[in-house]
Amino acid sequence: MIFPQKSVFAFSGKEKRDAFTLVEVLLALSISSVIMVGCVALMFDMINIVEHFERGWSLRSHADGIEKFLRLRISTSKISEAPSNGRANSSKTIYLAPDPQSGSSQNDKFICFGIPADHPLLLSQTGFSSGATCYLECGDDGLSLIWTIREEKKTISSEKSIYKTVISPWVKQIGYIYEDDETRWEEEDDPENRSDEFPSAIKLYFKRGDEEFSRVIPFMDFTDFQISN
User: Fold this and answer.
1) Is pLDDT of 14 > 60?
2) Among candidates 66, 64, 46, 112, which has minimal Cα distance to 85?
């Protein structure tokens, strides 16, 4: 009878040494909960930070791309046939003219330039254009090119087809910049405010949510033309 009793006591003592008390379990759960809450909060903060920077750089890169596209196209502009009711810069490569949809000199004027060769953006019903006259328009759907093909084959109608291509949904405004003297610049919302002058540049205002950028596209070479941010 003595042997079994010793065995029971020895077994009971081992169980007591391996177990955790209720206080220890609660303390461990509390510490784990605090750590998990902190990790979850940190994870969401990191996601928000990464998303903020990704969106910011995405809009910035988009604005850079639109600026480069327009700088190249405007600097290489060639217009063989002057738009009706328009006025040109000194080299007659860029015009201020109403878009071809209006057909009236009383309508708003837009920057007009020519793209002399094929471009993947300018896809008409008959394929890629062999050259186009483009009008830069800013509306509710963003910045668009209103364009016509220079040498379009007229089959059904004698009128030229007019196409519209949105190039940036985040451009909310175009400013027209005029050089008053070597150190002073003035910006106008409407180029008709200075109907006897041709603007020196345009300024595009990009906005998406709380993010805002602007880009300047000059119509000539400047040694110190810094208006964008």
Assistant:
1) no
2) 112
Q: Which residues contact 133 (CB under 8 A, 6 or more apart)?
A: 79, 81, 83, 112, 113, 114, 147, 148, 150
- Residues contacting residue 118 through CB under 8 Å, at least 6 positions apart: 128, 129, 130, 131
Residue with tokens 């700088």: 71
pLDDT tens per residue across span 118-169: 777 777 666 555 678 899 999 999 999 998 886 654 444 446 788 889 999 9
- Whole-number Å distance between alpha carbons of 111 and 167: 15
Measured distance CA(175)–CA(196) in Å, rounded = 17
Beta-ladder partners of 206: 171, 213
d(CA 83, CA 97): 7
Predicted TM-score (pTM) of this structure: 0.68
